[in-house]
Design brief:
single chain, about 290 residues, alpha/beta, Rossmann fold, N-(1-d-carboxylethyl)-l-norvaline Dehydrogenase, domain 2, eight-stranded mixed sheet, 11 helices, 8 strands, about 45% helix, globular, binds nicotinamide-adenine-dinucleotide, 6-PGluconate_DH-like_C_sf, NAD+ binding
Amino acid sequence: MSNIKNVTVLGTGVLGSQIAYQTAFSGFKVTAYDISDEILAKAKERFEGLASTYQADGVAGAAEGKADAALTHITYSSELAAAVADADLVIEAIPEVLALKQQTYEQLGKVAPAKTIFATNSSTLLPSDLKDFTGRPARFLALHFANQVWKFNTAEVMGTADTDPAVFDEVVAFAGEIGMVAIPIHKEKAGYVLNSLLVPFLNAGYALAAGGYADPKDIDNVWRIATGAPMGPFQITDIIGLTTPYNILSQSGEGKQLGQWLKENYIDKGKLGVATGEGFYTYDAK
Ligand code: NAD
């Protein structure tokens, strides 16, 4: 068991709100921190939305009062020092902007108690890019969640060479306590395990379709039938939304052409995936 009791989440956007709610749902005391009270008012609505989603998705215990009880475990703050005053763990889920994260860790390092562990949920930055700004590299590491944490419950744990192994173990234990399957990563790797596998897989699918070798539905079919996997690359892309892979491809030299193929054939036609009712497949409007 971990010694973590009080958790502060920095940023209450898409992932921060899910991490905060899942932690509260698991019985921890959570402080949700964001930059203004207006944003925190929106966060409160997000948490109420998550309480309904947990019930609708049949998360164990949600309909029996746990989903509503979680809302009472969350307090709100737009004052960083107050938000972290008694935090055992701070999970940072602010925008993926290096300078913003570095600046935030500099402030956080000054106001947080010495006991506090810091964890970043960054998808593309390495914890090494941030560790020197924390003032406590031994108590800093990455704890990376997947979108829709209540269903896709992996938590990749990745430290730097400076992370104290006891802190690493503590965060692995905490991840289990909030219902995640912890995936320890033994040395730093951009993309962690998930994106190191997923990104080349999706790109291989796009290259087959864009090159005219086979249609997206048939590519998904062969993958599903021949391997027993539940979804092919285009079904997965529809769930992620086509904009994220487009943004990643546009920033890579070799991937630009595939990004252009996604844009011209799908994105420019409003086919962005499940969220817009159509991507490579069509979906019932919610
Ligand atoms: P988001 O834009 O939805 O939310 C960011 C939140 O941070 C906003 O509420 C914003 O007001 C707040 N914020 C901005 N500046 C801040 C500051 N200085 N201090 C505190 N809060 C601040 O972003 P997101 O999609 O939730 O992503 C957050 C992090 O999680 C990123 O590092 C991203 O790489 C990572 N991540 C995202 C996903 C995903 O699917 N969206 C998945 C895994 C990891």
